[in-house]
Amino acid sequence: MKAGVGGLARHENDTYHQVSEDTANVPGNPWFVCTAWLAQRYVARARTPEELQPAREIFAWIASRALPSGILAEQVNPYTDQPPSVSPLTWSHAEFSTAVLDYVDKLSGLTRCTARGMPRHPRRRHEHAPEAVGSVP
Question: Residue range 36-58: average pLDDT?
Answer without folding.
Answer: 97
